[in-house]
Amino acid sequence: MLLLHVGGLVVRRITSVAVPRTGRGLSLQAVLRPGAVLATLALAGCMSVPVPDLPDRTPSAWTQVPQGQGVAVDARQWWKVLADPALDGLVDQAVAGNLDLQQATLRLQAVRIVAGTSDSRFLPEISASAKQ
Q1: CA 45, CA 96: separation in Å to the nearest integer?
Q2: Using CA atoms in the order 56, 58, 63, 65, what is the torsion angle rounded to 10 degrees?
Q3: What is the pLDDT of residues 3-16, one digit of tens each?
Q4: Is the confidence at residue 78, as pLDDT, over 90?
Q5: Looking at residues 108-128, what average pLDDT do you find?
Q6: Residue ranges of the domains in the chain?
Q7: How far apart are CA 79 and CA 69, in angstroms?
């Protein structure tokens, strides 16, 4: 215990406090603090979120462009309509690196031949032994 004299008053300050403990030797504060933190985080997750700005109402009926007034688009190069050089570059890169199934099969067979494992497991094996 610490006694302080402040302007004629004696103030007692207790320096050691008995900490309640659980049956396993843990202090009650050490057990309750993580629970309080978890409860605080759980309640923070329940905070109300501001309502986002909603878009304008959609029209009740859609209109179509009359035939012949639209832009003719080649289905094989539809992205060209967007006129984006970065997109053009990405598509060109993807097309250059894209192999169809037949090319992929041929490459796999070539690798197996080089590795010596071609389709030999499907061929019959012949073995012989001699006894005297």
Answers
A1: 48
A2: 50
A3: 656 666 665 655 55
A4: no
A5: 76
A6: 78-119
A7: 19
pLDDT of residue 44: 81
Q: What is the 3-state secondary structure (H, E, C) of the chain?
A: CEEEEECCEEEEECCCCCCCECCCCCEHHHHHHHHHHHHHHHHHCCCCCCCCCCCCCCCCCCCCCCCCCCCCCCHHHHHHHHCCHHHHHHHHHHHHHCCCHHHHHHHHHHHHHHHCCCCHHHCCCCCCCCCC
pTM over 0.90: no
Given a cut of 90, whether residue 88 has pLDDT beyond it is: yes
Amino acid at 58: T
Structure tokens at 76: 């094989």
